[in-house]
Structures are given as C-alpha cells and as structure tokens.
Amino acid sequence: MSALVANDLTPLLGLNAASATQTSSLCVQYIQTAFTIDNSEIKKLAREINIPQKEVMAMVLALSKIFAESSKRQHNEHFFRKAISPYALPDPVADAVTGVYLKNQKLIFENTPSKNSSTREYTDLSWRMDVEIARRSVQNMAEPNWKFNVSTSKEPIEFQCDAAMLDKLKGELELALREEKDTHSQRFQRYMN
Fold first, then answer.
1. Which domain holds residue 88?
2. Angle of helix 53-72 relative to helix 77-84, nearest 10 degrees?
3. Maximal CA-CA distance, the chain
C-alpha cells in the first residue's frame, strides 16, 4: 500500500480496541453499500472517538482499501496481519481490525467490485494451427487457420482466425502493452496503488 494509506491510518494508532472495532465495522458497511456511506455515520464516529471528521473519513477509506485488497487476495489471518504489519498498529487495535476482517471476509469479497463484475477473468490460453490438406489439386493454396481456446474464470471461449486476423490481434496486443508502459498509465497505476 502507499504512503498515503499509511498517513490516513495514523489515527488508528491512538484508538482502543473498541474504537478500532467500530471503525472497522464502518469500513465493512462502506464496502457493503457499494462504497457509499452516510455522512452522519462518519460524524457520529468522529464524535465518539474524538478525531476530526475529515481524518475519520480518510481512515475509513484507507482501511476499506486494505480490506478490499486483502479480500481479493483471499488473505487468511496470517496474511492479513502481514498486510497490516507495515502500519505498526498496537496489538489490541490490530487484533480488533483483524477480527472484523475475518468475521466479514466473505461479505467483503462478495461486495468488492472487481470480483463481483460480469467480466471474465483470463486464466489460460492454448492454440493450434490447422491446415487443410484434403484437396488434391496442386493449384489450391493451403491456408492455415489458428484455433484458440481461452480459459476464463467463468467458461472457456473458443475462436478461430486466419493469418490476417492473427496479425491484427498481434497489433492490438502490442498497442495494449505499449499503453501499459506509457507514462500516463504508469502514473495512474501509482495513484491507484
């Protein structure tokens, strides 16, 4: 996680276990409501733990990000504790945060956008080239076709293409890789992490 997340979690260092549990529960609620939260909940928590409202909101956002990322990676207790260890939370606070995460891990996972979307996630690709050789005429040119089997998280997809389409596919993939290495994309990735 970034230094911004670490700065936003600083107020957690001064909380007791009960306040950390309240804050963590609010994070779960934030994730469960599609990353929206009633401002009155933030005000109420800010009054109860005696921290400015702006800092409470930043803390909820940062801790929610940790919850969502850990959930996507399906962290168990050991790995979740490892994920929060760079923030040097006191043991009672770390125990409270971990307890809320473990209790709500399935709920967090189900409500995390990237795992709840309808898009398929790539897992594997296999291919083969087929050449039709059944024709006896020497004048007919053999034209190869490529068959692809793309395994995804939901179901495999099969398609076939000729040399021209394969060349177009290659060009599009090269453009995507170039775009990924572009400075704007790199900057965006840094901000997202």
1. 3-116
2. 140
3. 87
Q: What is the pLDDT of residues 158-168, one digit of tens each?
A: 989 888 898 99
Predicted confidence at residue 102, as pLDDT, reads 93
Looking at 57, 82, 116, the residue that finishes a domain is 116
Per the CB < 8 A criterion, the answer to whether 5 and 66 are in contact is yes
**How many other C-beta atoms can be found within 10 angstroms of the C-beta atom of residue 145?**
15
Same domain, 72 and 134: no
* CB-based contacts of 133, cutoff 8 Å, min separation 6: 142
Mean of the pLDDT values across residues 83-106?
91
pLDDT at 98: 94
Asked whether residue 96 falls in the same domain as residue 146, the answer is no
Instruction: Kindly state whether residues 101 and 29 are assigned to the same domain.
Output: yes
Q: What is the pLDDT of residue 32?
A: 85
Q: Are residues 93 and 126 in the same domain?
A: no
